[in-house]
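testing teh design pipeline on a random one, pls ignore if ur not involved
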């Protein structure tokens, strides 16, 4: 007789990862990003105000560099990443395969309405991580009903397949370095560590 196994525990809605980055060096690299690199976010129905992105790693076949195309098979660093030494160093700390990597900026007074990113999560073999580059006390995120403030230099995993929203009620921009990764053994072990 087979012994039944317990179901795998549900994935957390969000989790701060045990890695911190230097906020000053993140800001230095951000200051090197030319204003012409920023593209308005394509998902216009879910936000109000300025939500824009700059691609650091993209699918060469995609007509829109900031789009994290789930069907893409190849990804490559962009020219912009070449000039951002600390961003490259940060990306080098992640020992999982990197897919799309973007800077996502939320301007003062802007908000991303509650929505879900379908087919994105550990159950689908991928994870989205956020490294906070710049923020202010008026920035909040709500994931699966829980509101939080993430500080500069922190790294967070969130299950964006769940309902989520962001708001910038402050007077300065919020910028996150957003990594879409393959959920390999290294990343799954990192997420399973007690925090």
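output:
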């Amino acid at each position: 007789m087979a012994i039944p196994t317990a179901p795998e525990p549900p994935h957390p809605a969000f989790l701060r990862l045990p890695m911190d980055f230097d906020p000053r060096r993140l800001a230095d690299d951000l200051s090197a990003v030319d204003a012409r690199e920023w593209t308005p976010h394509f998902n216009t129905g879910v936000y109000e105000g300025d939500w824009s992105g700059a691609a650091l790693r993209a699918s060469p076949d995609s007509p829109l560099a900031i789009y994290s195309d789930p069907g893409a098979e190849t990804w490559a660093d962009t020219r912009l990443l070449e000039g951002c030494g600390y961003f490259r160093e940060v990306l080098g700390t992640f020992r999982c395969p990197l897919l799309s990597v973007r800077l996502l900026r939320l301007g003062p007074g802007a908000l991303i309405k509650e929505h879900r990113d379908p087919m994105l999560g550990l159950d689908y073999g991928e994870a989205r991580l956020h490294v906070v580059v710049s923020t202010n006390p008026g920035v909040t995120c709500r994931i699966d009903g829980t509101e939080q403030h993430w500080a500069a230099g922190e790294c967070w995993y969130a299950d964006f397949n769940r309902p989520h929203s962001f708001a910038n009620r402050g007077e300065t921009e919020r910028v996150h370095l957003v990594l879409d990764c393959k959920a390999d053994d290294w990343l799954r072990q990192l997420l399973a560590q007690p925090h």
